[in-house]
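Reference record:
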Amino acid sequence: MSAEDTQWFYEDLVLVPMSAKDAVDAITQLGTLLQKGGFVKESFIPAVIQREQEFSTGLPTAEVGVAIPHTDVEHVLKQAVAVGILEKPIEFGEMGNPGSTVPIQVICLLAVAKSEIMVKMLQAMVQMFQTPGLLKQIVQAKNAPEIVRIFRQHCRVG
């Protein structure tokens, strides 16, 4: 496996602090970073927004709410994760609980280029977010290099 296959997190794909009025605004901001970086096609942002409306990805946790929006691999050119740390939480639909919302402060917008990796990446993220204290550490990180370091250290897909 090459380094390119294991690289997911980039400083240019981190918004901290991030301000968004709602989930669509947040997905659009992070998706635009992915698009400008050449990671996704123009169809990516509308596809993620549509999928999020059908299958919400907000996760309530003991510390900080997290959302992991994503879409089909056909909209992705190269794998990456865009990360947004919101100054003020916004509401996302709750995963597996239609009609319910969760206040979200951390958003990880996944651009997964291979379908066989999608489940592994989602599992790695959920496992990472269950690590006590880690989400608080991410929210308290004040710059992109620190956030990228935390994600690279704790979220490995392979």
Residues 88 and 105 are 7 Å apart (CA to CA). The chain has a mean pLDDT of 93.
